[in-house]
Design a protein that fits this description.
Elements: H1 3-11, H2 14-23, H3 27-32, H4 40-47, H5 50-59, H6 74-80, H7 84-93, H8 108-115, H9 118-127, H10 142-148, H11 152-163, H12 170-178, H13 188-194, H14 198-205, H15 222-227, H16 236-244, H17 259-264, H18 269-283, H19 286-308, H20 313-318, H21 321-349, H22 354-378, H23 381-411, E1 422-424, E2 427-429
Helix pairs in contact: 1-2, 1-4, 4-5, 4-6, 5-7, 6-8, 7-9, 8-10, 9-11, 10-11, 10-13, 11-14, 13-14, 14-16, 19-21, 21-22, 21-23
């Protein structure tokens, strides 16, 4: 940075800045053309010159994302030099500055956790919530940094922020950050266990999304990491706490199958069905899915109302046996088939996810039982069971046909291309 520019920056005068621009209109652009440089914004941020820093942000926003020769951005310097108010203003101007990676892949969020400032940390999280997912070159998130530096208040802020998120993606973020492994495969819980940090372990175990039994690259769980300190150094209370919360040793856990081993196995019938359903869902547009859901809902309503209607006992007693069979087969057989097929199709049309699946089972289960009870109360047990035997038989036949089709496709061999050996000028071509 030029000496005149440095003097203006150190003075913090906005008027002096514009006087310098009048002398040389390209002076700011000259600084911006350098890839790594200590810009006037770096200097203003590190020394707390608020007015000058904000003026430079307006004139040249690109300064805010530049790294100096030490690999630090203006926001990094503001945090490092405890200029909290200025750092907060920079982030309000451009929230994405929180995610700018400096030396070692450290973001300003990593740095504020390391230095310790719960209020500024909260400001960063509010301005840029996704910054909590960022990891440095060692794969460490802000959660790892908080545990390594025993910053318990910052650790509480981070875990409290993740657990209180109400957006649809916040659940994935919480699970990702709490169980994120660094370059050595260690989660934040591993690091706390290695350090025999009872307070850190206790705060992390309060998070429901935390996986207590993740293995690092050495095959050790958090409980193994704690015991690696030796029985004479290990905190017995911490060991008990991990075990009560479900923590286990690596040896007691079932071995995780490698992805390469899994992919070499032949596709099972269950995987074939689940993959077919997933592909069917992915091919369908939202409009088509919504239309089909409306149709299935109408069919379920109509068939259920038919089952719920009371039956005239006197009329039933006057029916002949062939009429009863006709009514059971034609009315209740087809009605029941339509009801159950609509229930199954509705399940297939649901978005993928365990939450949707379980809620659907909780809702559809009582509905199916109610339908079953309504039909049972209308007829004698023999007729009722004959009717459902027909429905189950039809379903089994369809399942068998579907299974045989899968077996045929799986066993079908691709014809090998014919191989011809052609000799030409002492060269053999295949």
């Amino acid at each position: 940075m030029e000496s005149k520019f440095l003097l203006v920056t150190q003075s913090g005068s906005v008027d002096a800045l514009y006087s310098l621009i009048k002398e040389d209109q390209s002076i700011i652009q000259k600084v911006d053309d350098c890839l790594f440089i200590h810009t006037p914004l770096h200097e203003a941020s590190s020394t707390g010159k608020m007015d000058l820093a904000m003026e430079l942000m307006v004139l040249k926003p690109s300064f805010a994302k530049k790294l100096n020769e030490d690999g630090l951005s203006p926001l990094h310097l503001a945090v490092e030099n405890q200029q909290g108010e200025l750092a907060s203003e920079l982030v309000k101007f451009d929230p994405s500055l929180v995610r700018v990676r400096g030396r070692g892949g450290m973001t300003a969020l990593h740095l504020v956790v390391k230095k310790g400032d719960v209020d500024l940390l909260t400001e960063f999280l509010r301005a840029c919530p996704q910054s909590i997912r960022d990891a440095n070159v060692n794969g460490e998130t802000a959660l790892h940094v908080a545990v390594m530096n025993k910053k318990y208040e910052e650790l509480q802020v981070l875990t409290g922020w993740m657990q209180r998120g109400r957006k649809s993606e916040d659940g994935c973020t919480e699970n990702h950050v709490l169980n994120k492994r660094d370059r050595n495969g260690n989660t934040a819980l591993h690091l706390a266990a290695y350090e025999n940090d009872h307070k850190g372990v206790k705060k992390l175990l309060k998070c429901m999304s935390l996986n207590r039994n993740i293995k690092n690259k050495s095959g050790m769980t958090a409980l193994d990491a704690l015991r690696a300190n030796g029985s004479h150094k290990m905190n017995k209370a911490t060991e008990k706490l991990i075990k009560i919360s479900g923590g286990k040793t690596g040896e007691s856990l079932s071995k995780v199958e490698k992805m390469s081993v899994f992919l070499r196995k032949p596709v099972t019938f269950r995987e074939y069905c689940s993959t077919g359903i997933a592909r069917y869902r992915s091919r369908m547009s939202d409009g088509a899915r919504n239309s089909l859901l409306v149709i299935t809902a109408l069919i379920i309503t109509a068939t259920y109302q038919t089952a719920a209607q009371p039956l005239d006992k006197e009329k039933q007693d006057m029916l002949e046996w062939n009429e009863v069979i006709s009514e059971v087969v034609c009315l209740w057989g087809f009605n029941t088939t339509s009801f159950f097929l609509s229930i199954i199709l509705t399940f297939i049309l649901l978005p993928a996810g365990k939450a949707y699946t379980w809620w659907y089972f909780f809702i559809a289960g009582p509905l199916v039982c109610s339908y079953w009870t309504s039909t049972y109360m209308k007829y004698s047990p023999s007729i009722f069971f004959d009717m459902y035997r027909l429905v189950i038989l039809g379903f089994l036949i369809y399942l068998i046909v579907f299974y045989v089709r899968w077996k045929c496709i799986r066993q079908k061999k691709v014809l090998k291309p014919k191989t011809e050996l052609i000799s030409e000028r002492n060269k053999t071509m295949v």
